[in-house]
Amino acid sequence: ATDAGTGTVNSTTILVTADAVVRIDLTPQASSIVAGVNQSFTATGYDAWNNVNNSGLSFATNGSINSSGYFTSTGENTYQVNATIGSIVNSTLVNVTAGSITQIDLTPVATTIAAGVNQSFTALGFDAFGNSNSTGIAFASNGSINSTGYFNSTLVGLYSVTASGGSAVNSTTVAVTPSTAYSVSITGAPT
């Protein structure tokens, strides 16, 4: 405003602040990560006129998340992440999958079978956090074994069975012994 008598101009500053939050944008939506890997979430609050207002923003989850939105979990599961400002909440899901195989449990251990008998082997893989992951495990043997772990040999001997996947390898042995001998006795004169 200008003073008519002196010509002096007076001014003031008006600070316009964002109003109460009416929505929160939360990203990413429906993400997937490997166990032990961080996922960064971003939340932005807006008032009815799309002014940003992040005052009082907080994150929560049934996994682990810090105040900056960095989520992590070592357990394979689907987790919910919530961003909250006042009474306004937005949620998303993060799917945590098992990491690469670092350990294989192979059973049975050091077994014995008769020649010609099948022996089933089971290989269970786990990541560094103990999450189950048997994808891509392969069997090998100096005898005969198929892709599902069924071993067979008609020859007597000691054989190795190996299961491998990721960075893990585990081996065991199977001893093949002679099968039960059968004798046939024929009596009487031929006709």
Provide a descriptive summary of the structure in words.
The chain is mainly β and 191 residues long. The chain has no helices and 18 strands. A 4-stranded mixed sheet has the order 2-9-8-5, with no helix packed on it. A 4-stranded mixed sheet has the order 11-18-17-14, with no helix packed on it. A 3-stranded antiparallel sheet has the order 3-7-6, with no helix packed on it. Strand 17 (157-165) and strand 18 form a beta hairpin.
Give the strand order of the largest sheet, numbering strands 1, 2, ... along the chain. 2-9-8-5
User: Uncertain spans, ≥5 residues at pLDDT below 50?
Assistant: none
Biggest sheet character: 4 strands, mixed
Helix content: under 10%
H/I helix tally: 0
Secondary-structure element series: EEEEEEEEEEEEEEEEEE
* Mean pLDDT value: 92
Query: Approximately what portion of the residues adopt beta-strand conformation?
Result: over 45%
Radius of gyration: 34 Å
Number of strands: 18
Structural class: mainly beta
Shape summary: rod-shaped
How far apart the termini lie comes to: 138 Å
Write the layout of secondary structure elements.
Layout: E1 23-27, E2 31-34, E3 39-40, E4 42-46, E5 58-61, E6 64-65, E7 70-72, E8 77-85, E9 88-97, E10 103-107, E11 111-114, E12 119-120, E13 122-126, E14 138-141, E15 144-145, E16 150-152, E17 157-165, E18 168-177
Parallel strand pairs: 2-9, 11-18
Antiparallel strand pairs: 1-4, 3-7, 5-8, 6-7, 8-9, 10-13, 12-16, 14-17, 15-16, 17-18
